[in-house]
Amino acid sequence: MNSPAQQPTDPAPGPFESALRTRIDRGEKALVPYMTGGLGDWVNTLGAIASAGADAIEVGIPFSDPVMDGPVIQEASQRALEAGTTPASVLDQLSAADVGVPLAVMTYANLVYRFGWDRFAHALVASGVSGAIVADIPLEESEPWCAAADARGVETIMLGAPTGSDARLRRVVARSRGFVYAVGLLGVTGERESLAGTSSEIAGRLKAMTDKPVLVGVGIGTPDQAAEVCEVADGVVIGSAVVRRALETNSPEAVGELVGEFRRAIS
Amino acid sequence: MGEPDASGRFGDFGGRYVPETLMPALIELEEEFRAAWDDPEFRAELDHLLTEYAGRPSPLTECHRLSAELGCRVLLKREDLNHTGSHKINNVLGQALLARRMGKTSIVAETGAGQHGVAAATAAALMGMDCVIYMGEVDMARQELNVFRMRLLGAEVTAAQSGSRTLKDAVNDAMRHWVSTVEDSYYLLGSVMGPHPYPWMVREFQRVLGSEAREQSLQALDQQLPDVVVACVGGGSNAAGIFSGFADNPEVSLVGVEPAGGAAVGNGVPGIVHGMNSFLMQDDVGQVLEAESISAGLDYPGVGPEHSFLSQSGRAIYESVTDAQVIEAFVLLSRTEGIIPALESAHGLAWMVANADMLRGKSVLLNLSGRGDKDVAQMMDLLADRL
Q1: Whether B92 and B225 share a structural domain
Q2: How far apart are CA B115 and CA B86, in angstroms?
Q3: Which residue of A has its CA nearest to B173?
Q4: Which of B341, B315, B307, B317 is nearest to B327 (CA)?
Q5: What distances in angstroms separate CA B105 from CA A117, B113, B138, B279, one per listed residue?
Q6: Mean pLDDT across the stretch A144-171?
Q7: How high is the pLDDT of residue A6?
Q8: Are residues B140 and B229 in the same domain?
């Protein structure tokens, strides 16, 4: 099998991974908030998130049928779509913005497929975006996208889930660039009342396999939960908590304050 | 109609576009299905249920008055006479047995018109499993009777409230539910769609109706096969079932009939949603469009990947009919043959009426995939002025 997951050598870290490593090498934890592109005052919100201590940011490109997302990000996606947001409009605005930290987009396969695998990879680079997560492209379907992304130097972040065997997680780790996204629980994005036991477990399993940064996302809703999982993980992705704050306030400052609380909790 | 390739594709279509959390479950499902399908005990148990519980084989009915009216020889495959009222029971019994074999204790399913939901709830009751059904809020209103039937059978019916609040959104919510419960629950998909192995597995579970129809046609037509085989297509499971009995005979024309407001093959372009690459109604950037059909069971912007393949290869053709044509066909079959068809199945008949000139003198097999009892309340409003 010629799967890209089994390529023996990793390229040198790109800007996204380098930013995380800079933080981690100082003995600190990496913080990657998520914000829905096209939602309200989103470009200024990215600036506020960066100023509040984020090491990098995931920008969601909204899709009509986001099966990996819970109610908060569904709502944000729908509002952004109603406001006329498209993949091109998100990338256009990003290329004009100076956020100050590396960016990755998070989206779904059909938007990339329609754009064209290579054309999308090229558009990311042209817009100053370093990485990408495509929520419904698992290893088995990753070849056309990853080939295009690799050729353009886009860091494709892959997800490792609690349901994966060790053998499968090793392939995920080998294929992932930027960082390894540890899915904290069985479920869709969204806050939970307490940290799932699976969060630290999956982080530990992945950490034992790789020197790449391992960040836990899905189900990290509070600074305390972030701190707890960071006893094992190299950092966290926080999505729904951030987007909820943006939905409720449409205030970049208010979102920045929340991100600051996460920053201080995990430092 | 054979197996998909190792990546789960029929030609360019299919695949497994799902969140990473679900991939191990899909790989396991394929292995378990292959093992079960090769296991004579499994096959015998399924055959027993299909016969003793679901009432198979379903009859083939020759329609003399309708034939005279249309000028072609009309045969109906009577899936409407199955237990629970449609072809959906064939797939549901197969998958429920598979779920039990895999040690799963609960079932999650989506439903459009409620026929698959009722069938899934029925199988869950039969096997003592928990059952959660996702149904679009709009569909729950127009198929109130089926909602009650599912609840009576012990299923929990949950409204899908996002997007168009129809079948597409019910699939989204069922997939989200499965992501959260994948270790204990079995996703009982109702059509030949979704990620591999579902499109292939569901077609194999529906193959029984095509095999029966082939034998019955040979008997009814003096050892000849019908000239044309017609079936409605939403996701496409009843069409896949009946086509499977005739696809190897190129002299038999295969016709899939889509609703004009949900014609994925007719108006769509290849896209990726619900785990598969297939024809999809979408806008210029790839946002999925909302289908709009009188029939909740066909109100879906996508289509099973094997239908995309059959269309691209030219083996089957896909055409569409309007809601108005469907209403006329619904009345026509009721009046000429004493058979009230499901609105879904009435699409196939509506196509025959529209193409009666072309069909003149030919033998036409229509898969009457379901009965119309569930649609009567909706049709009472639409036909109020006429009856």
Answers
A1: no
A2: 7
A3: A67
A4: B341
A5: 40, 25, 29, 34
A6: 98
A7: 47
A8: no
The per-residue pLDDT for range A129-151, each reduced to its tens digit, is 999 999 999 999 999 999 999 99
Q: For residue B22, what are the domain limits?
A: 10-49+88-198
Place of tokens 């189900």: A219
What percent of chain A is predicted at pLDDT more than 90?
95
**A138/B18 touch (CB, cutoff 8 Å), yes or no:** yes
* Residues B182, B275 share a domain: no
| Domains parsed from chain A with CATH numbers | 13-266 (3.20.20.70)
Residue A7 has pLDDT above 70, yes or no: no
Residues of B in contact with A139 (CB under 8 A): 20, 23
Instruction: Quickly state the pLDDT bin for B284 (edges 50, 70, 90).
Output: very high
Look at residue B163 in the predicted model and tell me its pLDDT: 80
Domains in chain B, number: 2
Distance of residue B12 Cα from the nearest chain A Cα, in angstroms: 13
CA atoms within a 13 Å half-sphere pointing along the CA-CB vector of B359: 29
Please give the positions of A annotated as active site.
58, 69
CB contacts, 8 Å: A141 with chain B: 15-17
| CB contact at 8 A, A118 and A152 | yes
Question: For position A1, what pLDDT does the model report?
Answer: 42
Residue B63 has pLDDT above 60, yes or no: yes
**Six-digit token pair at B347?**
């699409």
Residue from A141, A168, A169, A185 to probe the interface with B (highest B Cβ count within 10 Å) = A141
Asked if residue B42 and residue B155 are part of one domain, the reply reads yes
Note the helical H segments in B234-322. Answer: 237-243, 264-267, 305-313
0.90 exceeded by pTM: yes
